[in-house]
C-alpha cells in the first residue's frame, strides 16, 4: 500500500458534504467520486467496479451499500483485489449522519490498513439516548466526597441568576456599564486564604453577590467561587 490511500466515493455517497470539509481531511487520504474518476465506472456492477478500481490504482471504495458484504460474488472481488472497503451501515437516507460517521473514522485510517490483504471497515452509528445532567452532577459530587444534594446546594442557580439577561453575567463589563447591583464604587476587602484582595462588585456574577454581601458584613472567609477565582479575560470592548 502506498503512503497515500486513494479511495473512491461511491455514487450513492453524499459527495458535496465531504467536499465542504476537504481541507480538513487527513493529508494521507485522497477521496474522489467514482463519477469524477471516470463516469463509466457508475455503470459497472460492484464486482466489476472493484476490479476496475484496482486497475486504476485506486485502493478501495467508500459506500453506503453495506449489503455488498452479504453477496459472495462481490466479496470475492474485494478479497482478490485486496481492496479497502469502508461501508457505512444503515445511514444512506441521512447524508449528514453518513458523512459524520465517515469523518469520525478517517483520522488514522491509512495507518490501520493492513498490507497484502483486503480491509473492510464496517461503520455503524446508533442515536444516543439522552441522560439527565444530574447523573454527572452526582459523579462530580462523589469525586468531592459530598452528596449530590450538598453539591447542588453549593452551586445551584440563585433566584437572581435566572431572570438576569445573559450578557449581564460577563466576567467583565465595558466601561460605564452598570451591573444593576451597584456601580464600580462598591468595593470591599475580603480575605482569600492569607491574601487580602480588593474586589469590584460590578465585576461579580449575580450568583456571587451573596458572597460579596457576606464580605461587606464582615465575614472574613468567603468561598473561592466568589472572590478568589482567577482573573478572566475582559469582555471585548
The share of residues in helices is 25-40%
Low-confidence stretches: 171-199, 219-237
Number of domains: 3
Put simply, the count of helices is 10
Please tell me the CATH architecture of the largest domain by its name: 3-Layer(aba) Sandwich
Number of strand segments: 7
Beta-strand content: 15-25%
- Give the overall average pLDDT: 78
Approximate shape: elongated
Order of helices and strands: EHEHHEHEHHEHHEEHH
Question: What can you see in these coordinates?
Answer:
- The chain is built from 10 helices and 7 strands.
- It is α/β, with parallel strands linked by helices and 237 residues long.
- It has 3 domains: 5-123, Rossmann fold (3-Layer(aba) Sandwich); 130-159; 164-237, no CATH class.
- A 5-stranded parallel sheet has the order 2-1-3-4-5, with helices on both faces. Strands 6-7 form a two-stranded antiparallel sheet.
- The longest helix has 12 residues, at 133-144.
Lay out the secondary structure.
Elements lengths: L4 E5 L5 H6 L8 E5 H4 L8 H10 L4 E4 L8 H10 L2 E5 L6 H11 L3 H4 L6 E5 L9 H12 L3 H8 L31 E6 L2 E6 L8 H8 L7 H4 L10
Parallel strand pairs: 1-2, 1-3, 3-4, 4-5
Antiparallel strand pairs: 6-7
Helix pairs in contact: 3-4, 7-8
Give the gist of this structure.
The chain is α/β, with parallel strands linked by helices and 237 residues long.
Amino acid at each position: 500500500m502506498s503512503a497515500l490511500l486513494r479511495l473512491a466515493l461511491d455514487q450513492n455517497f453524499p459527495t458535496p458534504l465531504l467536499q465542504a470539509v476537504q481541507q480538513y481531511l487527513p493529508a494521507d487520504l485522497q477521496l474522489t467520486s467514482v463519477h469524477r474518476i471516470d463516469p463509466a465506472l457508475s455503470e459497472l456492477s460492484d464486482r466489476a467496479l472493484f476490479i476496475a478500481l484496482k486497475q486504476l490504482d485506486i485502493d478501495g471504495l467508500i459506500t453506503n451499500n453495506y449489503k455488498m458484504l452479504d453477496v459472495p460474488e462481490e466479496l470475492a472481488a474485494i478479497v482478490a483485489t485486496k481492496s479497502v472497503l469502508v461501508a457505512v451501515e444503515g445511514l444512506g437516507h441521512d447524508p449528514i449522519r453518513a458523512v459524520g460517521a465517515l469523518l469520525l473514522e478517517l483520522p488514522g485510517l491509512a495507518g490501520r490498513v493492513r498490507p497484502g490483504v483486503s480491509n473492510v471497515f464496517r461503520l455503524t452509528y446508533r442515536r444516543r439516548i439522552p441522560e439527565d445532567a444530574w447523573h454527572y452532577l452526582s459523579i462530580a459530587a462523589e469525586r468531592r466526597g459530598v452528596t449530590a444534594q450538598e453539591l447542588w446546594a453549593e452551586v445551584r442557580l440563585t433566584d437572581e441568576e435566572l431572570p438576569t439577561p445573559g450578557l449581564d453575567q460577563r466576567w467583565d463589563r465595558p466601561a460605564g456599564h452598570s451591573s444593576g447591583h451597584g456601580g464600580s464604587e462598591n468595593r470591599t476587602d475580603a480575605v482569600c486564604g492569607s491574601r487580602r484582595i480588593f474586589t469590584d462588585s460590578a465585576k461579580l456574577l449575580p450568583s456571587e453577590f451573596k458572597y460579596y454581601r457576606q464580605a461587606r458584613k464582615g465575614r472574613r472567609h468567603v468561598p473561592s467561587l466568589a472572590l478568589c477565582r482567577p482573573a478572566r479575560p475582559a469582555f471585548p470592548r
